[in-house]
Amino acid sequence: MKKLIQIQKKIIPEVLEVMERRYLILKQISLNEPIGRRALSSKLELSERIVRSEVEFLKNQDLINVHTSGMNISESGICLLDDLKEFIDEMMGISYLEESLREKLGIKKVIIVPGNADEDSLVIKDIGKTTCKYITKIIKNNSIIGVTGGNTMHEFADCLQESKKYENVLVVPARGGLGKEVEIQSNNIAAVVSKKLGGNYKLLHVPDNITKETLESLILEPEISKTLKHIENVNVLIFGIGRADDMARRRKMPKDEFDYILSKGAVGEAFGYYFNRNGEIVHETITIGIKLENFKSIQNTIGIVGGSRKAEAILAISKIKKDLILITDEGAANKILELI
């Protein structure tokens, strides 16, 4: 494919330019639907004349639908986006970036979406959609799926399409948590994902930062104990990767503790553990849920994260689990390679 693209660039470069432009228009419509021509023109930095012409072509090909409320992508358009992805990724250099990052991190697989979530919030939606496509290929009957909380995980759950092709699927929160932002808590995400997959779910109503005595007491509760057994048997884990400072602030960590973990070089957080850039634990919060030894042994582990600000956090997690599947964006990928 790479050789074919090089030949096409030399002989008929205008064909590739048109293909890339139409692909990007379809992609933006799928992420922003319903969207008007003017808004689409602004997002793609194309003239309204060009957008009008391309929209007319895509409409005539039954790839998009045009309504008074705006444009949305058709089923044929969705299929075409999927079919073109590998070719466009190769053409835009994303395939090369994926392989370079995979080799540098020494992990199992890297999937990269265009853009930088720090600059464009819709990139997170693209990461969510890409994660949905990937996990629907690896989920099997009788799977136990673990999920964490966070904005990226919430986007993934929201993008997931309803399906009834799986039997006896159980979804569990990878850790407990109660807070004001209920929609991004792992309990809520577990409930949404299980509904979309036609499965069942278990909840873990346990707050962070409890005392050790309270933790030991809660573990003895029959319902919590049963959920923890399921968590130990998770065979598909989808989790978000957070910066240490961001997660500490979100969990209202005391200032002296916050200063301590940063002084120890904490850059990333997952499952209540704070890691330095080498993947070493510098701090552990008292919480219920998945333990590090469980994390290391889970067969299918998918970390989803976007934005160049998360580069060091991704580096830390990749040191811990070498069979990790990472779904991220160009911003994070380029920053990681720069740091390495």
TrEMBL record:
MF terms (GO), sorted A to Z: carbohydrate binding; DNA binding
Gene3D superfamilies: 3.40.50.1360, Winged helix-like DNA-binding domain superfamily/Winged helix DNA-binding domain
Stretches assigned to the CggR N-terminal DNA binding domain: 18-88
Any single Pfam family the record assigns to this protein: CggR_N
Residue span(s) of domain Sugar-binding: 92-338
Highest taxon in the source lineage: Bacteria
Keyword terms, alphabetized: DNA-binding, Transcription, Transcription regulation
Keyword DNA-binding: yes
Similarity annotation: Belongs to the SorC transcriptional regulatory family.
Name the UniProt record assigns to this protein: Central glycolytic genes regulator
